[in-house]
Every structure is written in C-alpha cells, then in structure tokens.
Amino acid sequence: MALDLTPEQKSTGKANFEQAAGDLARGDQMNTMATGGPPDPTKRDRRDFLKAGLAAGAVVPVSAAVYFGYHEWKGNKAVRTALIGCGDEGGVLVGDHNPEFNEIVAVCDIRPTNLERIYKGEPQGPRKGLNGIYGKDSAKKIKQFETVDALLGEAKKLGIEAVIIATPLITHDAIAIECMKAGLHVLCEKLMARTIGKCKDMTQFASKTGKYKDRDGNPVLLSVGHQRHYSTLYAQALEVLNTGILGDIKHIRALWHRNNSWPFSASAADRAGFATGNDIDGKPFDLPALRDGWCKPVPAKDAEPFLKNPTLMPKDYKSVTELVRWRLYNETGGGLMAELGSHQLDAASIILGHVHPISVQGVGGKFFYGPGKNDRQSDDGVFVTYEFPGKTYYKRDTSGHLVLQGGKPVKQNEDDIVVVTYTSFNTNSFEKYGECVMGSRGTMVIEEEKDVYLFKEAEPGKAASGGRDTRVTVTGAGGGKPAMEATSTWGGGGGAQLSKSSTAPAWDSAVRGYRTEMEHFAFCLRKWQEMKQHVSYEKDEQGKLKHANIIPRCHGEVAMADAILALTANMAMNRKNPQRIKFDEAWFEVDSPEVPETKHAKA
Ligand SMILES: NC(=O)c1ccc[n+]([C@@H]2O[C@H](COP(=O)([O-])OP(=O)(O)OC[C@H]3O[C@@H](n4cnc5c(N)ncnc54)[C@H](O)[C@@H]3O)[C@@H](O)[C@H]2O)c1
Predict the structure, then answer these.
(1) For ligand 1, mutation pick of 84, 86, 88, 258 (most atoms within 8 Å of CB)
(2) pLDDT tier, 601 (very low <50, low <70, confident <90, very high otherwise)
(3) Could you tell me if the CB of 288 is within 6 A of ligand 1?
(4) Cβ-contact 177, 556 below 8 angstroms
(5) Which residues, other chains included, contact 257 with Cβ-Cβ below 8 Å and sequence gap of 6+?
(6) Number of Cβ within a 10 Å radius of residue 312
C-alpha cells in the first residue's frame, strides 16, 4: 500500500501516528462516539488507558477488553461453543480464541481432513489446533460431528450455548437460522450471506424480533465476523481520523492484490493423497495448473465418503470439487468483492462514520483464468469506484451526530463526496494490502491490518513543513481545532520516540480483531442473560444504539450493510450489463422487503 516509502519514511509515519494519538489522548480529543464503541461510562477508563498505553510506548492499547468495554468479565463462565466449519478460517479462529470466554466443546465438518486438522493444527502460523490449546488429547474432550443436524441433536446434552460458523458463503443463512431456531447464539463468518434477502432473513431471525430464545428464555444473539470492528489498531486510527487532523477527506484508496499465477507443484507423496477418477457429478477430478488458495487439489480422504454415498453431499454443492473450491463458483461464493473487498469496504465505511454509500460502478471479471488455467466462474480482477457522502453531505448537530428526519439523515451538501476506490487482482502482489486515506491536510495509510503511517501535507512555500520525511505533533489538542504541525525532518531529532519496532510480531490478536470479536460475543451473551429481558436494538435520536455496549459491534444490520457494498458492486460489474448503481436506503433497512437483487441482475 505504502508503495514507495523507504523504511525510514515508514518509521516516520509510524512515529507520527503514535505522536498524534498520544497528543490527542492527552488533550482529551479522542472521541468515544466516533468508534461506535462503548458509551460514556467507560470513557474515563478508555482515555486513561490510551494515555497509559501511549506513555508506556505502545502504539496500540494493550488491552482490547478495556477498549471495547468488556473488561468486567471475571467470574463469568466460559460460553460452551461449537465450531461449525473447520477449514482455513475455522483454524484461525480456534488458534486465536480465548478458552476463558469461549470454551470449544464440539466441532463439526463434512470434510474428514479438516476435522483432523482442527485438532492437530499447523506447526507454523496462527492455526494452533485444538491440541495446541486444550492439550494433545483434546479429541477425547471435544466431540466431533459430521453434520449440523447431528450436532444440533446433541447440543442440549453437551450444554452447547453458541456456535461459531466458518463454512462457505452459500451455507451461512441456513446454518445460522437452524442454529438460532435450536436456541443457540451465533457468531457467523463474513460475508453474512450470498444475497441481501438472506441477510435480512438472518437478522430478522436473530434477537431483533426476540422470537427465538436460548434455553434460559433469552433471545438469541447474532454477530458477524468482520473482524476490523474489533481491531484496536483500526479503532485508534479511527479516533485519530475523527479529530479532523487530515482535513477534508475526498479519497480513500483500498486494495488487496495477490499473485496466483505461479505453476502448481506438489511432491509425489502429496499427489498420492489427491483424489483421482470421477467426482460425484461425473466430471474427472483435476489438479490445479496454478498455485491458488481458492483452487486447491481435492484430498482423496475428503472425496471417499461422498463417492461411496453421494446422498451425503449437502444440496449446496454439486461435487466434492465444488465443496473444496467453493470460491470459484457463483452459486457458492461471491468472488473477490465478497472474500476480500468486503473487509476493506467495511474499513472505509467505518472510517467515514458508518455512512451508507451513494453509488457504485466498476469493471471486473475473469480476465486471467480460463481453460487449463484454474478455470472458474468467479472474477480474478476488480476495479470498483464508490461515491460516499462526505462530512457535510448530511446535516450534523454540534456533536457531529447525523440529524435525522423520519429516521433518515437530512441532506445538506450533495457535492461533498468521498470517492472510494477498491482494486483486487490475482496476478500481481507487488503492493501490500491496505487502505490509504487522503485528506487536504494529511494522509493516513493502514497496511496489512498491522501498521499505520501518518503524514502531514507540505504547506506551499514552507520548507520541511510536511511530506514523507517530516515528523509531526498535534497542536490544539487540548482545545480548539487539532491540527498537525511539523517538528523536524527525519534525522533531525524531536517528535516521539519510535515505539513499535520492525521486529514486532506480525500476528497481534488485539490488532487482528478475531480474538476480541469472539470475547465480546461471549460478553454480550452473558450480559443479555443477566438482563433477563429483550435487549433492544432501538436507536437514540442520533441513530446510536441504546444498548451499544452489549450488542456485537458487527451485528446483523451492520454486517448486512457490508454485504450490500460487496454484492451490489458485483451487480454493477456485470459484464453483460455494466451499470452505475445508486444505493437505495431501503436496502439497508432490515424490515424492508427491498433488496438490490430484485432490481439488478444477480452477478
Ligand atoms: N474474517 C476473515 O478474515 C476470513 C478469512 C477467511 C475466510 N473467511 C470466511 O470464513 C468462511 C470459511 O472460509 P474458509 O477459508 O475457512 O473455507 P474452507 O473451505 O477452508 O473451510 C470451510 C469448511 O466448511 C466445511 N463445510 C462446508 N459445508 C458444510 C456444511 N454444510 N456443514 C459442515 N461443514 C461444512 C468444509 O468442509 C470446510 O472444511 C467463509 O465464509 C469465508 O469468507 C473469513
């Protein structure tokens, strides 16, 4: 993302971010409302905590629990949780979960190799496996199931209270609804569902209506796994952005590129483990021609049960190949926008204050893959442009809250637009993924979900007043309008101490957000049980949830907005009928029957 920055310039950018966050926290300019996070009662804690964190030299707060307002967990029993879907993401969630909050008591998957892998884990990386967390005989304590029905059949006996769903996109709504009907609380991976209609179904089934109850008679809870809502790094970046020190933001550039064009190779031993012969749809199993995480070889062990008895295959998939490579098919996946774009559009909409976009248009398609080259239905390149409302597009009150009329924001300056572009290509990995926020007074770059760089714009005619080598402090942080001021150029001293070394671990749970998202889910669940009443999703006059601190930050309505961003972009890029689609506010309303797919051809 920060393509042409030297290591020294990156250090300057990091130090600037830290300095600005410190100055703003010390000046009490950090704004709790801005994060959509816990309301005022915790503000004192969070501010002190930010100060303490910064004084101790940490770029990001040490305790996500304090930041997100669930530090009073002690004394609560861990939530007895089942994991449904033990593939790549299920492995990450197991590796990052905290057994004090979510005790995994059962797992479920229809692929034998992934059931094995979820216990064993992997020697490198975040997938520590259940054995790595609960001990090497974890399989004796953690029961395994091959179907969701079998799991639900024993849920009561096993005392299961909640499920984490990490299965392919096409399955999310049906599995989530089945689990909620069975009285289980649900944390479902993103993208929420394959269509917006299905997202609405899921949200309506969840606690909003209060119809389905857990075993203690409390409404079931639904959370969706867009983990950036739980990243302390994003939260802090957002707090800095919301003070206005970047000036007028007119453009956000987000991207996530990969290179999946290299030839596939595998050892003879590995090849012996891949399925051969014909799949259950009669087509031959094939090996990928190119190395690509979306187009993996089909393990013989996973094919075996379905070849013996094809009726075991859930109706969502026509073949074992489709089960393994679900991202390649339009029916089972949502392409690059659903898999990657949704995360970064989520970040852009958080940065712009959870506002809904105005329009989307773009170009995308299968430009590289084809016969003999990991062929697929899904796209391999997308370039999308969104128009979002800028700060003054809608009327705001003196505290910055949107002014609503009949529940809708009141327009004020329709020319104030922020252009958000998103690109994702499969044939070049030169740039690191991330988001670059460009303002009239400065630039913030968030890279690979782990680094933030902040730079000031240079002032005309004023040497060393900004740019890539300039360190900054924030003036006016204690009162008035905060702004960045240049202190020195690199090597000239001054500014803050650099505190996050380049040797900092690449995986930091609080920054990544997965662990925090699972912990907060458990916290909300216990709080709902304590309240013994329907937790309201009612909003105050400013459109803020009254019970915000005990509702998952990425609850159904929020996750549905992310799905609308991703799936509507796919419709706009339809090769046969490309269009500029204007977003309809009714699509974002859970109780409205309006959905984009009825008006615009499904991609
Ligand atoms: N939040 C993130 O950063 C992130 C990252 C990667 C993936 N994801 C999401 O996680 C989900 C899973 O992705 P993945 O990469 O782990 O895919 P995967 O193919 O590696 O794993 C999916 C697993 O679900 C199992 N499964 C499929 N249908 C099932 C059913 N009906 N019942 C039980 N098990 C079933 C499969 O056998 C497989 O083991 C997707 O929704 C994906 O978008 C999120």
Answers:
(1) 88
(2) low
(3) no
(4) no
(5) 423, 424, 425, 426, 428, 429, 430, 431, 433
(6) 13
